[in-house]
């Protein structure tokens, strides 16, 4: 017999979540932040590697510089706490060193660290939201990985995968529509015709953008994404990450 479904705080948090980019000036206390970080560490991690590190930035001058490097994003300047979620293989390299072996970074170890850091980062943002904080992830921090690494003194084998602005919300944005569950879920095998369902999403998103004052094409998702991704994104990433100790073989 199927279990009776009762909603709970995790499902409600997920159903209500939205990125928040405007914050009050109130500080986020050290004790609360430590609790959030400590709980996020319970995220699953590949082979118990815990291949991530977190840099907590409160210093205004450092936030200003990071905001500039991430494409002048004002919310990085304004949030009381900006965190860098780093993919970090440096402790794996250290473990090899202690054993008299040599760490061989490759595409798999890069993916392991990136997936580990992403799961930790998502847990971090959910934990923050569960106590009433607002947050937004910042991929713009990958614009200049080497400069960011230098600014916060990252060891070789580590880079800032994304940032996370955290603060007490001063806005409650309307939720952006997501693709239909039937479009993103496939039972047993992939239904390649499902992509035709994007038409409906294009109109829903266009409607949302119009309502929230953003000018977009009628085919809002395919129109924007189809243009944005017709050029290679961040071509500097591979050589810069190689300089930071990653390898993609
Ligand atoms: C890895 C990642 C990187 C992101 N980078 C940025 C960013 O640089 N700047 C920004 O304002 N929002 C950023 N976002 C937030 C997305 O724009 C946002 O999650 C998406 O538009 C959906 O909106 P919602 O989170 O309000 O549902 C990022 C989100 C993720 C997951």
Topology:
Elements: H1 9-16, H2 30-40, E1 52-57, H3 60-69, H4 74-78, E2 81-88, H5 90-98, H6 107-130, E3 134-138, H7 145-151, E4 158-167, H8 181-184, H9 198-211, H10 220-228, H11 237-243
Antiparallel strand pairs: 1-2, 2-4, 3-4
Helix pairs in contact: 2-6, 9-10
The chain binds flavin mononucleotide.
Flavin mononucleotide (FMN) binds at residues 18-19, 21, 73, 136-140, 162, 176.
Your description of this structure?
The structure is a single chain. This protein is α+β, with helices and mostly antiparallel strands and 249 residues long. It folds into 2 domains: 165 residues, NADH Oxidase (3-Layer(aba) Sandwich); 47 residues, no CATH class. The protein is 43% helix and 12% strand. The termini are far apart. Bound molecules: flavin mononucleotide. The site of flavin mononucleotide (FMN) has 11 residues, from strand 3.
Entry keywords:
NADH Oxidase, alpha+beta, 12% strand, binds flavin mononucleotide, 249 residues, 11 helices, globular
Concise synopsis of the structure shown:
This protein has 2 domains: 10-174, NADH Oxidase; 181-227, no CATH class. Helices cover 43% and strands 12% of the residues.
Count the beta strands. Answer: 4
The whole-angstrom Rg is 20 Å
Query: Beta-strand percentage?
Result: 5-15%
Sheet of most strands? 4 strands, antiparallel
CATH superfamily of the largest domain: NADH Oxidase
In CATH, the architecture of the largest domain is 3-Layer(aba) Sandwich
Q: CATH topology of the largest domain, what is it called?
A: NADH Oxidase
Strand order of the largest sheet: 1-2-4-3
Helix content: 40-55%
Instruction: Tally the helices.
Output: 11
- On the 0 to 100 scale, the average pLDDT is 97
Distance between the termini: 49 Å
């Amino acid at each position: 017999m199927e279990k009776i479904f009762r909603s709970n705080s995790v499902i409600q948090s997920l159903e209500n979540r939205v990125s928040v980019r405007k914050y009050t000036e109130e500080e986020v206390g050290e004790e609360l932040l430590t609790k959030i970080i400590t709980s996020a560490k319970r995220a699953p991690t590949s082979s118990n590697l815990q291949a991530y590190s977190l840099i907590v930035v409160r210093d205004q001058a450092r936030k200003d510089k990071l905001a500039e490097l991430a494409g002048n994003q004002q919310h990085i300047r304004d949030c009381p706490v900006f965190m860098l979620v780093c993919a970090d293989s440096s402790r794996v390299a250290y473990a090899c060193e202690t054993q008299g072996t040599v760490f061989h970074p490759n595409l798999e170890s890069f993916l392991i660290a990136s997936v580990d850091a992403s799961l930790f980062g998502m847990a971090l943002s959910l934990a923050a939201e569960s106590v009433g904080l607002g947050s937004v992830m910042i991929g713009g921090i990958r614009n200049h990985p080497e400069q960011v690494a230098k600014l916060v003194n990252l060891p070789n084998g580590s880079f800032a995968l994304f940032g996370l602005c955290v603060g007490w919300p001063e806005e409650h944005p309307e939720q952006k529509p997501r693709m239909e569950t039937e479009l993103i879920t496939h039972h047993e095998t992939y239904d390649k015709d499902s992509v035709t369902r994007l038409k409906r999403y294009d109109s829903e998103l266009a409607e949302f953008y119009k309502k929230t004052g953003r000018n977009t094409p009628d085919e809002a998702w395919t129109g924007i994404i189809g243009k944005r991704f017709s050029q290679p994104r961040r071509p500097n990433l591979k050589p810069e990450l190689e300089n930071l100790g990653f390898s993609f073989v």
